[in-house]
Design a protein that fits this description.
Blueprint: H1 2-24, E1 75-80, H2 90-100, E2 103-108, H3 114-123, E3 130-133, E4 147-148, H4 165-170, E5 172-173, E6 176-177, E7 192-196, H5 197-203, H6 208-213, H7 219-230, E8 237-240, H8 243-248, E9 255-258, E10 263-266, H9 271-285, H10 293-297, E11 301-306, E12 325-328, E13 341-342, E14 347-351, H11 357-367, H12 382-392, E15 399-400, H13 404-410, H14 416-424, H15 430-436, H16 438-462
Parallel strand pairs: 1-2, 8-11, 13-15
Antiparallel strand pairs: 3-14, 4-14, 5-6, 7-11, 7-12, 9-10
Helix pairs in contact: 1-2, 2-11, 13-16
């Protein structure tokens, strides 16, 4: 099945390339969704600021005009677990050959074990060109094992305003940039709160959006919303949130990464980690963490904390009346305190040893340009699309990217090794449970730092 999909895509790209060659002879403000204008009837995606005197401001400037004849006709192989012929990515995939003279093939790899699978393929000489960094075992620093410095690829103009420099800085170690994303990227990830508008409106309950407007949107008031909905009786659920998404919103985790130093450290002694898990334990013991995505879809769960995929037309809530989907930002820990957006680290890079690295640079730029997408049909509504782009305006310096899963993967440990006991104990037992996993955390942190240093040493030698 995978091979057939690859062959079909390759054939389509090749045909499009033939026809195209023959024919030859486009700190963010945090606002609530109700304030976002949809007067134009289209999603207003985030556009980079372009200096008026720069070449990027010229009317006829084309980022693909520099594609050399020597790589025209190259087929970029994009290693992904998603069949993007069935996502909003289908449009740029279909247009890429025509617009650039290059082709693209989806190199399908299971999300589980993604990096290990690619490392096996690479060792055998079967090397794709582009990888995606996401979450869990497909996250940094695991992906550093297959990444080459993208700043060493001459076809990637990292001075172009389209690149999100705060994200690039987060992926820079000793001057080398290993992964990128763009301003206005259609593929970005920050967590948010979804709420069932029908439940709140039909019962006259105060909504998360109203708390947000009042400046009183805190995790405790989120629990108040959950409690209120559960008063409706049997079958109604309060909140679905994973403990790591919640803890990340407090700007902490078991394994912490400092992109300025390129070092990992333990968060075991962080007071906010302790406070957060005590809050989680109390909320669980009150029966408020009993929801699920399915309960939300069926109209029985009040609140869900998830990533922006729920704003997409093909997302988590595809089987739900989409007019019932409300959304707002993550709460603050305390009233008056700014919030940190817990976020998936969605980034793209070029695989070490990629046979078509130069062409891959053009593909990544094309894939991450929102101008190549039909954004009006990508989101459940124009307002949802605009809300998504308000989330993407938040710089990486105001986001927390959890690293626990990826660091654990380096030592062959599943997440349950770390989380199971901490999630199950009472509030009084949280401190002991955290202390008991300290040795596992230290081992994972050391493995992560060793990996980074090994990679840096190899690249120093290669590019000296």
């Amino acid at each position: 099945m995978k091979n057939s999909i690859k062959k079909i895509l390759c054939l389509l790209c090749a045909l499009a390339l033939v026809f195209s060659l023959a024919a030859c002879g486009g700190d963010g403000d945090k606002t609530d969704s109700a304030d976002m204008s949809s007067e134009q009837g289209s999603v207003d995606y985030t556009k980079p600021e372009v200096s008026s005197g720069s070449k990027y401001a010229e009317e006829d400037w084309n980022p693909y005009a520099t594609i050399s004849d020597s790589i025209k006709g190259s087929i970029v192989r994009f290693a992904t677990w998603a069949d993007h012929t069935a996502t909003e990515g289908a449009l740029p995939l279909s247009k890429f050959a025509e617009d650039t003279g290059l082709g693209v093939e989806l190199y399908l790899v299971a999300e589980s074990g993604y990096v290990n699978s690619l490392m096996t393929k690479i060792a055998s000489g079967d090397i794709p060109d582009v990888f995606v960094n996401n979450s869990g075992s497909t996250d940094f620093p695991v992906t550093l094992q297959i990444a080459s410095p993208i700043n060493k690829v001459s076809t990637v103009d990292l001075n172009e305003p389209i690149w999100d420099q705060t994200m690039l800085e987060s992926a820079t170690i000793e001057g080398n940039i290993y992964m990128v994303n763009t301003i206005g990227s259609p593929w970005s990830g920050s967590n948010l709160v979804y709420y069932n508008k029908r439940i709140f409106s039909e019962n006259g309950f105060k909504t998360p959006e109203e708390y947000f407007k009042e400046g009183k949107w805190t995790w405790d008031n989120l629990l108040k919303c959950a409690k209120t909905v559960k008063t409706l009786g049997e079958g109604y659920k309060g909140l679905y949130v994973s403990s790591d998404d919640f803890i990340s919103s407090l700007d902490t985790g078991f394994m912490k990464y400092d992109s300025q130093t390129g070092r990992f450290s333990s968060g075991v002694n962080d007071a906010r980690l302790l406070e957060g898990y005590q809050w989680y334990a109390d909320a669980r013991d009150q029966g408020l963490l009993d929801g699920s995505v399915n309960d939300f879809v069926t109209g029985k769960c009040a609140l869900v904390v998830r990533g922006p995929y729920g704003l997409k037309t093909n997302g988590y809530f595809i089987n739900m009346d989409q007019s019932d989907i409300g959304y707002t930002y993550l709460p603050s820990w305390e009233e008056g305190e700014g919030f940190i957006t817990s976020s998936v680290y969605r980034m793209y890079g070029i695989i070490d040893g990629a046979p078509n690295a130069d062409a891959a640079g053009y593909f990544i730029r094309y894939w991450l340009d929102p101008a190549n997408y039909d954004l009006n049909n990508a989101f459940i509504s124009v307002d949802a699309g605009n809300f998504y782009y308000n989330l993407t305006k938040i710089p990486a310096t105001e986001k927390y990217f959890p690293r626990d899963y990826s660091c654990l993967a380096l030592i062959g440990e599943a997440s349950n090794t770390l989380y199971t006991k901490v999630r199950q104990v009472s509030s009084a037992g949280v401190k002991t449970a955290i202390d008991e996993v300290g040795n596992v955390v230290d081992k994972a942190v050391n493995a992560a730092n060793d990996l980074v240093q090994k990679k840096l040493a190899a690249d120093r030698e290669r590019y000296k």
